[in-house]
Amino acid sequence: MSLPLYEKYRPRSLAEVVGQPKAVRQIESVGDPGGKSYWISGASGTGKTTLAKIIAGLIADDWFVTELDATALTPAKLRDIEQSMAMFGGGKGGRAYLVNEAHGLRRDTIRQLLVLLERLHQHVCVVFTTTKDGQDSLFEDEADAHPLLSRCVVLTLTNQGLAKPFAKRVLAIALAEGLDGQPEAAYIKLAQKHKNNMRSMLQAVQAGAMKE
Predict the structure, then answer these.
(1) Strand 95-100 to strand 65-69: parallel, antiparallel, or no bridges (unpaired)?
(2) For residues 157 and 40, is the Cβ–Cβ distance under 8 A?
(3) What's the pLDDT tens digit per position in 115-151?
(4) Full residue range of the structural domain in which residue 104 is found
(5) Can you give the three-state secondary structure of 132-197, one letter per residue?
(6) Which CATH number characterizes residue 144's domain?
(7) Fewer Cβ close by (within 10 Å): the C or N end of the chain?
């Protein structure tokens, strides 16, 4: 089975990221992610996972990047994770933990996270990702969630002004894959149709939507 285009062409460095210059500048200004936590929110397909993986890659090799589902995190699971954080990773030496769907965090888990994030080792970073709607819901329902942001570098991804840069990027990928047959203007319409969701745009291209 061929690799999905959104994975095959996922940016591997900040220089390759399109449409999120403010977030890229924030990450660059922070520098070494060691001992830090990040909170990334934004609409689907705007780059949350991509930026999370890039941040993780600054400190840890792939084998030492752990992806976690927030809904499955419990205080007991966090205690196990904190024990693993004490150990250095191979290669770059660091360890990174990506917490997806962070709006699904439980109240007791959040309370324990508040303590854990205050004592992160310098070879560890934690990155939370969530949608804007999910974040709003979490903060409305869980009073304990607000202090979580104060312990994180907060990156809010934009969904505005993405049609042109996303169209240009998707067109280049379609050309590379032999899946193009439309003018650039058609890719801008594709971006608008898919509400500036890069993943959704590439899925459409892979399905042949832009071939003549």
Answers:
(1) parallel
(2) yes
(3) 999 999 999 999 999 987 777 777 776 666 778 888 9
(4) 20-156
(5) HHHHHHHHHHCHHHHHHHHCCEEEECCCCCCHHHHHHHHHHHHHHCCCCCCCHHHHHHHHHHCCCC
(6) 3.40.50.300
(7) N
